[in-house]
Design goal:
Layout lengths: L12 H15 L20 E5 L4 E2 L8 E13 L2 E6 L4 E2 L6 E9 L11 H14 L5 E8 L6 H14 L6 E6 H5 L11 E5 L7 H9 L12 E5 L13 E5 L8 H10 L1
Parallel strand pairs: 1-3, 1-11, 2-5, 3-6, 6-7, 7-8, 8-9, 10-11
Antiparallel strand pairs: 3-4
Amino acid sequence: MQGSPNSRHSADKLLCGLFLLGSLLLASFSAGCGSEEPNPRLKDVPIRMVWAWERPENLRFLDPDKVGVAFLAQTLTLQAKDVIVRSRRQPLDVRRGTYLMAVTRIETSKERGRKADLSTDQLRRIADLISRTSDLPNVRSVQVDFDAVVSERNFYRRLLEDLRRRIDAKTPLSITSLASWCVGDRWFKDLPVDEVVPMAFDMGTDETRIREFLSKGNDWNEKLCRQSYGLLAGDKLKASVDASRRIYYFKTTPWKSGDLDLIIELNDE
């Protein structure tokens, strides 16, 4: 999520695409499975969440009894042997009692001579940095945003396993997901996470196929994806959005009073 949770779709698009079409066709025979049983770690996470990215955000208009905030706490960039840390620098104003989820964005350098090593030292450093966000004031859960390409997936899996061991056993661990992972590239089906948030927007070359897939009433193939959606403000997802699932809303400009009501109304039409 740079600029948006799904400013993504880089190196491994071709490989993902090979799985996608066949999986979309298969899914038409197994759609309508519905939401899975709720994870007890997620019971206190609000059914509506807004993402607050790296910009000043005054969210005091949100009702803390109804809406939570997933805020960008830091961006970690892996460059050669280094982990470059950019902590949040912009103010975030919320009402007392607002449910807060700390989000860490992970990026990896692909530049020649600076390509990320994906070393064990980097893994441990990142796991430590992310686990510390769970100790930020009023934070109750942790989310990781990493567009892992094929060559990075084993590293990501090991990272999440390490992170799960480091954070409190009761703390929810959420990750964002490319929509293609949820319909045709199910590499993460057994990851040690409580929630996978499929980004149902800005889907790159898969956009048309996935929107058509969802518009026909199909559900995500991967059951971990059947607990939530990631939606973009102003984007009408022509699909049956299960109102019982958690929805994360993203906006490319600062939030203001009334925005969320308009977005919910748009997607409930």
